[in-house]
Amino acid sequence: MTRILTIMAMTAITLCAWSNGLTDSLRYTVRLGYNIGGTAPIGMPATIRSLNEYKLKSNLSLGIDVHKHIKGRWGVMAGLRVENKGMETDATVKNYHMTIVKGGQPLEGYFTGNNRVRVDEWLLTVPVMATYDAGKNVRIKLGPYVSYVQTKKFDGYVYDGYLRQNTPTGPKIEIGNTESTRGSFDFSDDMRRFQFGIDAGVDWYFSKRWGAYADIAWGVTGIHKSDFKTIEQTLYPIFGTLGVIYKLK
Fold first, then answer.
1. What are phi and psi for residue 179, nearest 5 degrees?
2. What is the H or E stretch that residue 5 is in?
3. What is the pLDDT of residues 73-91, one digit of tens each?
4. What are phi and psi of 12, to 5 degrees?
5. How many angstroms separate the CA atoms of 175 and 36, rounded?
6. Is residue 155 a contact partner of residue 169, using CB atoms and an 8 Å limit?
7. Model pTM?
């Protein structure tokens, strides 16, 4: 976290020096927001029967942007964000392919019961977006982003069910709801270091310096590596952000 904040501070200083030395047409804003969303498959698979609980983490987003007017109402914006994206869910699943550890023994098979998942990521994100000024105080943005995942966690446990070992009709292993009888998993090491996606949003200034913004970032790469097959569905990071902006220059 300290390393990321240092990078952001150095970037802000560099951008300020760049704008003052090269051109006065660059404009910068800082923004503080809260990410709302989660990691999910596209479309609810039949193996996930219901979502019983959903919790957000701290999920703060802090960033700085540089905007350059190009022609007419059009421009381009580049930014740097340090952000947290996390969630905790509890779902009822049926014949859900899993690898778990129960009583110190690794087991693979098809689980039916409850599945609790915890996801937590700290990311350094760089968006590059085309902008269109829809009005004097309203700016629409769209473009790609890349994120470097600084810290990553994807773990949890299954409980109150059973696992069919190896195949959907394999030996039945009962899974309880206490720490010693449930099955745990940790797929943090299988997560990607880089994520790519599309960012779209709108900035609205309600005064000369202050404004509000709403963005949505839709990942086009899953949070796990391409060779990770333990979870049968690809999980994509899909988060909206609401926050405030302050115009520095």
1. -60, -30
2. helix 2-22
3. 999 999 999 999 999 999 9
4. -60, -45
5. 32
6. no
7. 0.86
